[in-house]
Amino acid sequence: xxxxxxxxxxxxxxxxxxxxxxxxxxxxxxxxxxxxxxxxxxxxxxxxxxxxxxxxxxxxxxxxxxxxxxxxxxxxxxxxxxxxxxxxxxxxxxxxxxxxxxxxxxxxxxxxxxxxxxxxxxxxxxxxxxxxxxxxxxxxxxxxxxxxxxxxxxxxxxxxxxxxxxxxxxxxxxxxxxxxx
Length: 181
Description:
This protein is α+β, with helices and mostly antiparallel strands. It has helices at 2-28, 106-111, 153-156; strands spanning 30-33, 48-52, 62-66, 73-80, 86-89, 92-95, 98-100, 122-123, 139-143, 159-160, 166-173, 179-180.
């Protein structure tokens, strides 16, 4: 009789470990592969990332969601939160009429040699998010870091909160760039 309980206990332990592992895989250690160049210099083609769906999006977080164009998962930076006004003027980001620095773009801007801005001027009204003047409740405005090559909210509009799959928090490949983001 003791052997029967011992076997049952072992099976229950294994089942609990398996459920915990599945929970981690589904919500905490969800892998994502970067496709394309729209997030350079932050992320490059084929970088491998982990995301969590347990974290609420904050300004400048990097989020994943299905592309409005083809449904494939894409990676972009959240710039506009619900209730925000946004504009880009002379390569300077303004949120709610306040200047915001984008230090993650500093090296990219410094490397430009053609005299053109990294990000062309825009407002919510003259982007695909228009005619809205404010980011609506339950929506986000996202931008790729490679502003000249990124397909982002300027071209496909707002991203619904329920479409955000997760927030990127760790890069695990390439190994020379491994670390918390």
